[in-house]
Amino acid sequence: MPLRIAITPGEPAGVGPELLVKLAQHDFDAELIAFADPSLLLQRAADIGLPLELSEVDFAAPAQAHRSGHLKVASISCHSPVEAGSLNVNNAKYVLETLSRATDACKSGDCQGLVTGPVQKSIINDAGIPFSGHTEFLAERCEVDKVVMMLASEQLRVALVTTHLPLSAVPAAITGDNLQRVTEILHASLLRQFGCQNPRILVLGLNPHAGEGGHMGREEIDTIIPCLEQLRQRGWQLEGPLPADTAFTPRHLDKCDAVLAMYHDQGLPVLKYQGFGRAVNITLGLPIVRTSVDHGTALDLAGSGRADSGSFYAALTTAISMAENSSRNHH
Ligand SMILES: NC(=O)C1=CN([C@@H]2O[C@H](COP(=O)(O)OP(=O)(O)OC[C@H]3O[C@@H](n4cnc5c(N)ncnc54)[C@H](O)[C@@H]3O)[C@@H](O)[C@H]2O)C=CC1
Ligand SMILES: NCC(=O)COP(=O)(O)O
């Protein structure tokens, strides 16, 4: 029987809803369920001139593989009318409701994977709800205290020790305990979910030139090197800490399964330079499969039909294949 994949289109005024309409034009070996406002999806389909038929999902009925132009929906209503490209603080709770319901469907086993479209983090905060990202939200909703954000293209995987933090808060978050737990989750995921035998991880330093022997920062000497030395005693292949400016060169990348960056803008610009529009954001360490797009809400393109659905497509096919692997391993 096909698996069920929950999809949240994200910010209703962003490109997420129309990218989902574009995705729905393909066939997939899984049932796709949009946790969203049906009238929003139909409106956006009309705006960009694509056909779409919706029917309410019945979790008690057998799942059916997705066929072009149709979409199953778990209906959730927006709180205010949506205008593409214009954020409305009244719809922030709707965004979180779609996420909560879709996550809970995965936790209960109704769905076997979650694919999220982009949310506008600022408007959720403007609504008075502290929110730094799906990654942190999902960890809390799934009651897991540590998860890892990893973005992957076909050529490169980049995982992060810290995620959505102000730059000034990063050094204090690079503790031995945090680095160890992140490396453990990344190592286990590469081994079990990505088929890497004895994974090779390239770890970046925090400071320029990886601290230049302590003359440009001491985090490498005080924290990163001791942590890596300890983990290497398990026989793990951990290279580094390497200076980040030269780590992303073929000599190093050819030998590694993933790069572990210390913070968001140390690793992701390189990944996006190499693979923007085709890369997938994967949350490691959750009890559910969760993937997402590599881009944001692109309010400047919303409603135009010009946004590229490549990353959403990659996120969906990755989630289907991860869910299939995980379901095979459980049987
Ligand atoms: N997965 C998620 O929920 C993510 C959400 N965001 C959120 O999105 C909002 C806007 O963030 P920005 O930094 O402006 O990034 P953005 O990715 O929305 O836009 C950056 C540039 O890329 C272009 N772009 C983005 N997606 C595109 C697509 N599918 N096709 C063609 N061009 C595309 C935009 O038009 C813009 O020029 C923020 O609130 C941010 O937090 C950002 C990244 C991921
Ligand atoms: N840069 C990645 C990003 O902002 C998406 O994060 P998340 O919402 O998936 O946690």
Question: Main traits of this protein?
Answer:
331 residues; alpha/beta; Isopropylmalate Dehydrogenase; 2 domains; 12-stranded mixed β-sheet; 12 helices; 38% helix; 18% strand; binds 1,4-dihydronicotinamide adenine dinucleotide; binds the ligand NCC(=O)COP(=O)(O)O; zinc ion binding; NAD binding
How would you characterize the overall build of this protein?
By secondary structure, the protein is of the alpha/beta class. It contains 12 helices and 12 strands. It folds into 2 domains: about 5-145 and about 285-330, Isopropylmalate Dehydrogenase (3-Layer(aba) Sandwich); about 150-270, Isopropylmalate Dehydrogenase (3-Layer(aba) Sandwich). A 12-stranded mixed beta sheet has the order 3-4-2-1-5-12-11-6-7-10-8-9. Strand 6 and strand 7 (about 155-160) form a beta hairpin. Helix 1 (about 15-25) packs across helix 2 (about 40-50) and helix 7 crosses helix 8 (about 220-230). The longest helix has 21 residues, at about 310-330. The chain starts with a strand and ends with a helix. The model has no long low-confidence stretch (mean pLDDT about 95). The protein binds 1,4-dihydronicotinamide adenine dinucleotide (NAI) and the ligand NCC(=O)COP(=O)(O)O.
Order of adjacent strands in the largest pleated sheet: 3-4-2-1-5-12-11-6-7-10-8-9
User: What's the pLDDT, averaged over the residues?
Assistant: 97
Which overall shape is indicated by the principal axes computed on the Cα atoms? globular
Distance between the termini: 14 Å
Overall number of structural domains: 2
CATH class of the largest domain: Alpha Beta
Total beta strands: 12
Q: What can be said about the biggest beta sheet?
A: 12 strands, mixed
- Kindly estimate the percentage of residues that lie in beta strands according to DSSP: 15-25%
